[in-house]
Design goal:
heterodimer, A: 326 residues, alpha/beta, Rossmann fold, 3 domains, 5-stranded parallel β-sheet, B: 63 residues, alpha+beta, 3-stranded antiparallel β-sheet, elongated
Chain lengths: 326, 63
């Protein structure tokens, strides 16, 4: 029997949903176990940092990295995984483009910390205690990682070979990736292992030749026709600019797409692409009419950059703001 | 004082590490649980449409 592959799964600033997606491949996990040994996966098995350190460079056949890069410990892990993995896969929306944690990039890290430790209603912290990078406890020294200025995508920190998009990635694409490794049929470097069109292309809802929107409505104010295009019913949907491959799972379940698969090929900034897609279907004769329609789109930043702010050209909030500013 | 570090705490979602300090007799003098992660849900949920939050907050923990 040929030597088994070695797989490693590294969680970073993430929620663990990516790792559940791995378990969701059900009985295929048995094939994975035949094919590969898992050499690092702390979310599922009892691995420690030292176990990863002990793996020689190139000793991991395929490393799967999930989560955004949010602190210097994440950077260390990203570099370790790059060095030790022959193939490094950016796994899930957070690693690919920042994901939900990169919504925090609209604020400075200090602003996030101020909210978390000083003003959030569930926290009582009259002394303004904050986590310290180094703390001299009576018994000895304790350290914490340094939070970076913002959340980063994995490929903004290290070189990445492949992307498995989604929040979380879909089982069929995880299986496709594992099969490609098993057969030694790896696609060209940089491939996003998913569809190549837009979510609208696999969405089963009916839409007219030319989408037209004359009013945006919040979802609880619409009697959602399950047969009809959500955008044409005035419900903000990210389908037009989002890569397909999820079989329009959210839309089929009655919820609009929020773009977790990231942009289609050759799109630099998903939010800009979405803004352009939305602008092109708004039907207005005058600027005032267009403004009136778009004013109803109550959180464009949160729709256009729900999963992808780390990759946006907008960069990061750097200015100081006062409490209460938006 | 001897220090035992458990880093990371495994088989859970999220990030944590534990430092245990042992006294000269080898007994536990003190133990510290540390949560090294910062994401900022407390801030970036503020101002978003409430009907969107069931699609954002599940990403606090997806397990």
């Amino acid at each position: 029997m040929p030597e088994k592959f070695k797989f490693a799964f590294m969680p970073s600033a993430s929620c663990g949903g990516c790792e559940i997606a791995v378990v969701d491949i059900d009985e295929v996990i048995l094939k994975v176990a035949e094919l590969a040994d898992i050499v690092y996966w702390p979310t599922a098995l009892d691995f420690k940092d030292k176990d990863l350190e002990a793996i020689p460079d190139g000793g991991i056949t395929v490393g799967f990295f999930n989560g955004a890069v949010r602190n210097d410990h994440d950077v260390h892990h990203a570099k370790q995984m790059r060095r030790k993995s022959q193939v490094l896969v950016s796994f899930g929306a957070c690693a690919q483009m920042g994901g939900i944690p990169s919504l925090g990039n609209f604020w400075t890290t200090e602003e996030l910390a101020h909210r978390m430790y000083d003003t959030v209603p569930s926290v009582v912290n009259p002394d303004g205690t904050r986590p310290q990078l180094k703390y001299d406890a009576p018994e000895g020294e304790l350290t914490l990682p340094r939070a970076m200025d913002r959340a980063y995508a994995l490929d903004q920190v290290v070189d990445v070979d492949y992307y498995l998009p989604g929040c979380p990635p879909q089982v069929k694409w995880i299986v496709a990736a594992v099969e490609a490794v098993a057969k030694g049929e790896l696609p060209p470097k940089g491939t996003v292992i998913a569809g190549t069109k837009a979510v609208c292309d696999e969405c089963p809802r009916e839409r007219s030749e030319e989408k037209q929107v004359t009013e945006f409505k919040r979802i609880h104010l619409v009697e959602n026709d399950p047969e009809k295009c959500l955008l044409e019913q005035g419900i903000m949907c990210c389908g037009p600019a989002t890569r397909d491959g999820c079989e329009a799972a959210c839309v089929v379940a009655g919820q609009a797409c929020r773009g977790c698969f990231g942009p289609t090929d050759n799109v630099n900034d998903m939010g800009a692409k979405l803004a352009s897609a939305i602008a092109s279907i708004v039907i207005a004769d005058t600027q005032a009419e267009a403004d009136k329609i778009l004013d109803k789109l109550d959180d464009p930043a949160g729709y256009f950059y729900r999963f992808g702010l780390a990759r946006s050209m907008l960069g990061v909030q750097r200015g100081e703001r006062k409490d209460g500013d938006e | 004082m001897k220090k035992i570090e458990i880093d990371p705490i495994s088989r859970l979602e999220g990030h944590g590490k534990i430092a245990i300090f042992l006294d000269d007799g080898g007994d536990v003098a003190e133990a510290y649980l540390q949560i090294p992660e910062l994401r900022g849900f407390e801030q970036f949920c503020v101002g978003r449409p409430v009907e969107e939050l069931p699609r954002i907050t599940p990403r606090i923990c997806g397990v």
